[in-house]
# Entry
Amino acid sequence: MDKALEEIRPMLMADGGNVELVDVSEDGVVKVKLTGACSGCPSSQVTLKMGIEETLKEKVPGVRSVESVN
# Structure
């Protein structure tokens, strides 16, 4: 999981943001916290679903979805 998030971080950091892993449930729901510029960005849900979720589903078996927490 951490390796997949490391692949995503440069894209987020280029815009002044980052992502922190909060929790992974047994049923494949990953909870992350968007930080920096990403935390208040109007496009954060697009980044979450199209960037982070798609990458994690591709790289980490068993990931069903990704949710943002505050």
User: Anything to note?
Assistant: The longest helix spans residues 44-59. The radius of gyration is 11 Å.
